[in-house]
Amino acid sequence: MTVNAAWAAGEEHEAGRLAVGHRADFTVFADSTLTTSAVELPDLPVLLTVVDGRPTHRDASL
User: Fold this and answer.
1) Strand-by-strand arrangement of the 54-58 sheet
2) CA 28, CA 21: separation in Å to the nearest integer?
3) What is the mean pLDDT of the chain?
4) Which three-class secondary structure state does DSSP give residue 11?
5) CA 46 to CA 61: how far, in whole Å?
6) Which pTM value belongs to this model?
7) Using CB atoms within 10 A of its CB, is residue 16 exposed (0-12), middle (13-18) or buried (19+)?
8) What SS3 class is residue 7?
9) Helix (H, G, I), strand (E, B) or coil at 35
10) Beta-sheet strands, E only, within the chain
11) Fewer CB under 10 Å: which end of the chain, C or N?
């Protein structure tokens, strides 16, 4: 969740950024989502998913 989405959901004090006191929810992809084409995004491998500070998926390469 981004800062703006967290604000819209009323969760700006607990989500939306990686900071002390905030939930650590994030995903690490094998390549940049900013430079990968929209057509290729669905096939972009997920290396790590963390929800509420706990890894829920970790690729074997890590």
Assistant:
1) 26-29, 46-51, 54-58
2) 21
3) 93
4) coil
5) 11
6) 0.76
7) buried
8) helix
9) coil
10) 26-29, 46-51, 54-58
11) C
- CA Rg, the chain, in Å? 13
Residue type, 28: V
pLDDT (average), residues 25-54: 95
CA–centroid distance for 22 within its chain: 13
Q: Residue 6 gets which letter from DSSP?
A: H
Query: For residues 16 and 14, what is the distance between their CA atoms, to the nearest angstrom?
Result: 7
Q: For residue range 43-54, list pLDDT tens digits in order.
A: 999 999 999 889
Determine the average pLDDT of the residues in 15-24: 90
